[in-house]
# Entry
Amino acid sequence: MGMFILRRTGVMILTALCLTFVVFFLTNLFPNLEKLAKTQGNARMSDAEVVSWLDRNGYGGPLVVRYGEWLGVVPGWTRTNDDTGAVTGRCIDFGMDAEDAPTRCGLLQGDLGFSTVSDDEVGNIIGGRLILTGKLMFWAFALMVPAALLVGVLAGMREGSRLDRSLSTFSIASTATPEYVSGVIFIVVFASTTAGISGTLTEWGWLGSEGWLGDRRTLFLGSARSAMEDGITFWNFFLPVFTIALYGMGYIARMTRASMAEVMTAQYIRTARLKGVSFRNIVLKHALRNALIAPFTVIMLQFPWLLTGVVIVETLFNYNGFGWTMVQAASNNDIELLLACSIVAVFVVLVTQLISDIGYVFLNPRIRIA
# Structure
């Protein structure tokens, strides 16, 4: 197991280097750098002025050297102003003497640079957005995974029954409905004062100043902005969590159902039935563990999706998490922030894949690692 983890870690490092270099290359194409120079400098810059600005700000060197500077394995660039004698560089912060600046400042040193849009440290931006998305991921997982496993197991226990067909139809419908469709429907039904059930509940006296459900006009809040600023409550956070969970649970439930149905037809399950073992013990003690092997991999794959793929839900419910930040960085040509987002996304994908492989071995004793 130790050698397996060591080999996989080495492959992960090589994969991360390749992926980050590809992202670095794409974000540092000349059209992007030209747009950055004109955004930071003057929109009417000539081509010569653009090249001069890029050289003064460290974007004029060879691509491989700049990638090494960003990683922190190559000393950061420095420039000296011929007129004033002031020294600037990648590792020289504002107001810092050049002699006090470190030689290297990159990813390995924990320095992700500064955002070219907000002038804030990229680490601070990423950290805050990851906390927000982490809260959303936690509650979405807490709702999605148990519900999906329950639906899948119930459907797979009696393949072809009416319960199986009903739950399978629900799973397919939830997966086939995009988040922006289900999210809008939930907002209209549960968070609108003029449509849906909130208006009806207000007329009945259940909502409003004297309603027994609380002093509010809607059953749930259609925006999660207050969850960012005032804290998470069931009222302001249920709809985005439920929207994500409903879309993700369908795929997990279908995989669980297929795996459970296959296990229930296995020879050892038939032997247990012939021996008179109760159906409950067959499911819980014999079938369930083997049926969870395939869904475990699918569940682990939900982590990268929840981190970067929920930008639609975050935008729809006005929740500025990590996915929203990455899209904003791409649209605003914020190179340093976009590179940092890519590093986090790559790290999460590779780590979840490693955990999935290790967990697969523990769930299936038949697997042996060479």
